[in-house]
Amino acid sequence: MKAFTQVTGVVAPMDRANVDTDLIIPKQFLKSIKRTGFGPNLFDELRYLDEGQPGQDCSQRPLNPDFPLNFPRYKGASILLARKNFGCGSSREHAPWALDDYGFRAVIAPSFADIFFNNCFKNGLLPIVVDEDTVEQLFQEMYADEGYQLTIDLEKQQIIKPDGETIAFEVDEFRKHCLLNGLDDIGLTLEDADDIRAYEAKRREQAPWLFDAVK
Amino acid sequence: MGHPENKKQTLYDKLWQDHLVKSRDDGTALIYIDRHLIHEVTSPQAFEGLRLAGRKPWRTDSVVATPDHNVPSDAAERAGGIEGIQDEVSRIQVKTLDENCKDFGIVEFGINDPGQGIVHVIGPETGVTLPGMTVVCGDSHTSTHGALGALAHGIGTSEVEHVMATQCLIQKKMKNMLVRVDGELGPGVTAKDVVLAIIGKIGTAGGTGYAIEFGGSAIRSMSMEGRMTICNMAIEGGARAGMVAVDQITLDYVKGKPYAPKGEQWDRAVENWSRLHSDDGAHFDAIVELKAEEIEPQVSWGTSPEMVVPVNAVVPNPADESDATKKAGIERALEYMGLSAGQKITDINLDRVFIGSCTNSRIEDLRAAAEVAKGHKKADSVKQVLVVPGSQSVKAQAEKEGLDKVFIEAGFEWREPSCSMCLAMNADKLGAGEHCASTSNRNFEGRQGYGGRTHLVSPSMAAAAAIAGHFVDVREFGGVK
């Protein structure tokens, strides 16, 4: 996994609550058997004026001029500012894959849906929870200042504003450790293989039917 | 969670405890997974990951696969098997699942196997998923299996790979929520209406961070299939896991299923499962209560499952909402749905009707829809009514009961088991601007087709709407038990 230490970048808005993963990456793109290449279809139904198809060359499609990610001022954005319950709905990991492939490294919102939140950490994408008032303030500052940038320092668990003011955020110790070092958590879990085997042996005694093969 | 001095446990506490391999100093835990269901959409990248890292599945016999999302519901197309799938990208994905299962030695109920069906339908109906299990699948509606008294939830593809490689998930314990529905449901009011009413009350983020146990006399008296419908939509209330305590209804349901324990094993299992309920006085971090008598048939009007009202209500007015973000959400939803504030729900005309999905494609759902449809014809203004059974086994049972004929005589289309128009990954989809009465679980923008407008309802409400051409209160329609 890609490590995340510090990121400085342009902030772009997704100014609505309950953004679902269907909206982040619509179903037709889930037919891919790869992990990459979803960036051009991020927010497909909002971003373009036509219906997208898998494998299509998106550079020829009509852009929705009213969708913020299409505004020149948000070009190259790497931090997405969002509202409550971001990433709700389907468990599709294609949602963080699409955000990552587009170039986002972090999403800031007052709250996230559980599965999406979890999926982000597996892909070097940092979801940051800050309170609603702070998010509102960031929206105002971003709208007022073209080219508004933030720095995110994961080690210090801080968002650093252009004026130097900092906003602290929480992150689980384990997830932080994995992100900072770009660690594969399967490798870490396999270090506990003996514990897993011991559990399995005990469980097999208690509930042998759980180990019956399906044929 | 819960008070440390309180030794009384919730159902979730017990299931968690039973599967705890290891607690780590950093607050995370390794949780053992008993059953891993996979389908074609969220597994290919996980298999690819295993190959790249040179890893093998920890316990292949814990994994069961079936293709459901992409497979055609059209009988002629379906008859051609994988090679017959016309959409090339879909065909490659289904074929990839097939190949991966062969390569890794995983049991798969293939595209036209008698065991095939929507993963969340075939798990309980075969006994592949059982009480007391931890069940995961790269699909958010895995919460369905919680109806058995299991800890079941959706995971992402990286976690699919993690579970295959380690048989475990890295988790933090969730909080406990009890949703209690007491009383008796009125005629024509179903499990679907109950869960939509719950989501309407708690909101789509209400259950975030919680495992929800559904209890109360209305849930206790509900069939297993009804409980599955409720647990299925726990995720629409924000909770990864929903569950119901094990009782006699559970045991009667599980007994005799092909992969359920037999003989002496059954007796041991029953003894083990009899403790799978919350202890009296166990601590819940949140309790939500609904009165069954107050729940009416529900219809979603907007683009989030929380945007739901009783069938005799009107579309809400954004002017009545004080919260700015919510108000903007209502305005946007009205525009997308082509509805106006104050419009009667029963004045919404339907273009298509979909009866199916992991929420409502089981035999009881089809019986309820057929009961309403019997002797009627779909309205001419309704272009299509799809009835898509959840599994080959549900399909066979329905045909044995003659339900397929009832549907066909009513002008409905009887299809092959698949996820179908719930998420429109196969050819079944809405056209832009079309309104659909759907028994599925999500009414998000574009979910059932680009520009499509979804209204979530119960199977009997969907059948009644198909006949009337617009929403009607099924209680006044007839054919309702």
What features would you describe in this structure?
The complex is a heterodimer of chains A (215) and B (481). Chain A is built from 8 helices and 7 strands, in the order βααβαβαβαβββααα. Chain A has 215 residues and is an alpha/beta fold. Chain A has one domain: Alpha-Beta Barrel (Aconitase, domain 4). In chain A, α4 (114-121) links the parallel β3 (106-109) and β4. The longest helix of chain A has 14 residues, at 193-206. The two termini of chain A are 36 Å apart. The mean pLDDT of chain A is 97. In chain B, the strands form 5 sheets. A 5-stranded parallel β-sheet of chain B has the order 5-4-3-6-7. Chain B has a 5-stranded parallel β-sheet with strand order 17-16-15-18-19. In chain B, strands 11-10-9-12 form a 4-stranded parallel β-sheet. Chain B has 481 residues and is α/β, with parallel strands linked by helices. Chain B is built from 16 helices and 19 strands. The model of chain B has no long low-confidence stretch (mean pLDDT 96). Helices cover 32% and strands 16% of the residues of chain B. Chain B has helices at residues 11-18, 44-53, 75-79, 88-104, 119-126, 157-166, 191-202, 217-220, 224-232, 248-254, 263-273, 324-337, 363-373, 392-400, 403-409, 459-468, and strands at residues 20-23, 29-32, 35-38, 63-65, 107-108, 134-137, 151-154, 168-171, 175-182, 210-215, 241-243, 286-291, 298-300, 308-310, 352-355, 384-387, 413-414, 435-438, 453-456. Chain B folds into 3 domains: 11-171, 2-Layer Sandwich (Aconitase, domain 3); 175-246 and 264-294, Aconitase, Domain 2, CATH 3.40.1060; 298-476, Aconitase, domain 3, CATH 3.30.499. The chains are: A alpha/beta (215), B alpha/beta (481). Chains A and B meet through α4, α6, α7 and α8 of A and α2, α4, α6, α11 and α12 of B. Chain B: Its EC number is 4.2.1.33. Chain B: Belongs to the aconitase/IPM isomerase family. LeuC type 1 subfamily. Chain B: Keywords: 4Fe-4S, Amino-acid biosynthesis, Branched-chain amino acid biosynthesis, Iron, Iron-sulfur, Leucine biosynthesis, Lyase, Metal-binding. Chain B: Pfam families: Aconitase.
